[in-house]
Amino acid sequence: MDNYLLDVCVDSMESAEAALNGGADRLTVCAELPSGGITPGINLFYGIKMRFSLPTGVLLRPRRGDFCYTPQEFLIMKKDAAMFRDAGAEFLTFGVLNPDGSLDVPRMDELMLCVGKTRTMMGRAFDFCRNPMETADQVKMLGMKGIVTSGQQKDCYEGRSLIAQLVLHCSGLEIVAAGDTEPKNIKAAAKVTGAHSFQITGIKETGSAMRYRKKGITTGLSVMNEYSVYRTDEASVAGVKRALYGLSG
Description:
two-stranded antiparallel sheet
């Protein structure tokens, strides 16, 4: 019988609870999921780890945007890696690229020294690299244990061809097929790629609790809305879980 693992990215206690109730097998804690996720606060990690009995890891990403970091940003990444290592994270997910799109192997190696024996995964920076097969070989050489990827497309269904190649090419690495899409598409991707691990956010916009709403002002970019709150949707997680469970019989 094939076994499938569902990893859910969460950025709040409420989202972690919804993911657990929906059938998640593992949690990746981050912040600002609508922006692709960044490094979470330590107290959010502690809260989720202490309350929920699921394997729990952390995304290391000092800001949104590209994966080519300044010296100051990289120093923060190293400090965060050591902090979450000591806090008991069961895995850490990260990636650093050079300006030319290649993997920044020296910096990745520095991060590997910071994490000690903690399990490590190459993050979605992989989807922005220039040469995925070369990068996959380097990830394995560094001693990392997996790659989180949408196959360099918007989701794992669209990127199923590359994911299938990675599954065949990367013996010993956990290939985590990533990206929110319909359960039927994830089921199809599982069949085509041979991947057994999947990652989603399952986020949906929820209504703000605010009754009074100030118009014409925002604290961020003009496209942002202070009255839009995004949470992991239990039903969305459950739908994907059912699709994968249907393949496991």
